[in-house]
Structure formats: structure tokens, C-alpha cells
Amino acid sequence: MSCAVMTPPVLAAPPAPTLRAHGQGRPCVITRRATFSASHRYWLPELSPEENASRFGPCSLAPGHGHNYELIVAMGGGLDGDGMVLNLSDVKHAIRREVTGQLDFRFLNEVWPDFDLERPGGRLPTTEALVLAIWQRLAPHLPLMGLRLYETSTLWADVLDDSMEAFLTIRSHFAAAHRLARPELSQDENEAIYGKCARPHGHGHNYLLDVTVRGRIDARTGMVADLAVLQQLVEDLVVEPFDHTFLNKDVAHFGQCVPTAENIALHIADLLQAPIASTGASLHKVRLQESPNNAAEVFAEAPLLGMRPLALDALAAV
Ligand SMILES: [Zn+2]
Ligand SMILES: [Zn+2]
């Protein structure tokens, strides 16, 4: 599918505006951010110490380690007579009462029964298991559209409902040079299309690569995919072969295909799709940020989701 022409996203037309006071009745999505710090440990009592160490690496070390978590809560609904979906003060108190007040400065394995590993139904407090547990506590109180939980700036999980399905994203980085030019065109023609990017000796970027997988949260490990395996796949198939290269010459695919951000993202999706499928999860999205000013996103589950993120489907259903 490299160099393929993608059709633009088709978004539902917004409803005709009404002239009610304060927008009353019109739908809107709002978000609220909250933070907490907590510790956890990945240790399954049914495994030997050696098995725990080999499966979970440093995450298995006693007594555990901690993260500064960041939670994004998206909520949707019609505006009330005051011009609000919800009173943000109520939202803040609900999040504090149900989530951050219970988790902040706590050991996750002990604070909620979801993560009591001595129970048969207990699961490891992974990012995706934690965001699902948060959904289950907030859903009775807030009109949730989606939740995102950042464990670090390079690892986060999203849930869009209370099924066991979650999206897990890992962020990687590589530096590479490229030149945008089609070999069959003259230099003048290429500069007319690609501007400075067609200059003959190339230029470079620090690329940020976000790989999102979708899958079912395992009832015991709390994972949609083995995180270490996922990180190793991205490292072996993309970061190592792309980092500190001149893409046009050092990555065979780009000998024929102009390495625009779009084409690099598509190629990365092609490289990762089958190997990620072998982990039990599905490659959902590749986002490649070339600079602070531009990024390309490829939704790899086409035609199931096409260019429309699942979140937008949920939003459109309000
Ligand atoms: Zn951790
Ligand atoms: Zn460039």
C-alpha cells in the first residue's frame, strides 16, 4: 500500500445551528486533565521468581516503582442552559473522589481489588488495565466519551468503553535525513513541487513515532500485548534501520518512493502490521511527527476504520 492515494476523511455534517440561548441542547465534547502519582509492581504469584523476572524485567523488582500519571477525561453531551455540558467543578470533584483521591501516593497493587493478584480475577496494574478500572469507576458519574492515561511521555493507553478493549501507544524517536524529489523530474520541476525539500543534498528531522495497537486486555497480565515485545519490534524493524540514515539511499523502499512524512508513516505501518498481529494485538495507527509543525497519521485497520479514528465514531454517535 506504499505510495497509495488515500481518500480524505468523510466527517458527518454538523447539525444546523439553532439559535437557543447559550447553545442549550447543542452537543459538545469537553476534556478534563487530572494527575496522580502511584507505584506498582508486576509480579504474578503463580510464576516463579525467575519467570517473573524474565517476563516483566525491572517492573518485577520489589518493592515496586512509581510513575507520575496523567489522566485525560473526555465527556460529551448537550449544553445546559448555562452553556455547559457539565459544571467543571462537579467533574473535578467526581474525578478526585472516584480516582485521584484514592490512587494518589498509593501502591496500585493494594489500593483497588482489581489489582489484588491473590484474587483469581486480579490483574497487573498496567496502564491499560488501570485506565479501564478508572473508566469503570467514573462511568456511573460522568458521560464518558474516552479516557487516556499517560504512564510516561512515551507510553499511554486509551479506552472508549467498558469492554476489555484498549489502545496502547508507545512513542519512539529516530533522526534521519531525506530529500523530496521524484527521479523522473528535473531539479526545477522538483523544486516547484517540494520547495527547499528538493535541494540536492537533503536535510534532516528528529522524527517522533507513535505506534498505537488495539487489543483485548488480558484478564491476568492486564496487557493488550507484551510491552517488551512490542517495543522490541518497533526498535528492530524501524528505529534501528532508520536512525541516522539518509532515507533515500539507506532504506531500500525509499529508492523508489519519495520519503514524505506520509510515505514514511505508510511504510512503517506496512513493516509493523504483520509482526504486531503475531503479538495478539492489531496495529491501529502510526503517527509520525516530522517537526513541531507537521505530522502524518495512518490508520492501519482500513477498511474497518479507514481514515476515521474510532474516537470520532463515538463522538459522532452523541
Ligand atoms: Zn511501571
Ligand atoms: Zn523534510
Describe the structure.
Helices cover 29% and strands 28% of the residues. The chain is α+β, with helices and mostly antiparallel strands and 318 residues long. The chain folds into 2 domains: 19-161, 6-pyruvoyl tetrahydropterin synthase/QueD (Tetrahydropterin Synthase, Chain A), CATH 3.30.479.10; 164-307, Tetrahydropterin Synthase, Chain A (2-Layer Sandwich). Strands 1, 2, 3, 4, 5, 6, 7, 8, 9 and 10 form a 10-stranded mixed β-sheet that branches. Helix 6 runs antiparallel to helix 8 (261-277). Mean pLDDT is 90; it is low at 1-8, 305-309 and 311-318.
- Please tell me what the overall shape is: flat
Radius of gyration: 22 Å
Q: What is the mean pLDDT?
A: 90
CATH level-3 fold name of the largest domain: Tetrahydropterin Synthase, Chain A
CATH superfamily of the largest domain: 6-pyruvoyl tetrahydropterin synthase/QueD
From the coordinates shown, what is the CATH architecture of the largest domain? Answer: 2-Layer Sandwich
Which consecutive residue ranges, at least 5 long each, have pLDDT under 50? 1-8, 305-309, 311-318
Helix share bin = 25-40%
Text of the CATH class of the largest domain? Alpha Beta
Proportion of beta-strand residues: 25-35%
Which structural class is indicated by helix and strand composition?
A: alpha+beta
Number of helices: 9
Main sheet makeup:
10 strands, mixed
Give, in order, the helices and strands: EHEHEHHEEEHEHEHHEEH
Write down how many β-strands occur, each being a DSSP E stretch of 2 or more residues. 10
End-to-end Cα distance:
33 Å
Ligands in the model, by name, code or SMILES, are: zinc ion
Number of domains: 2
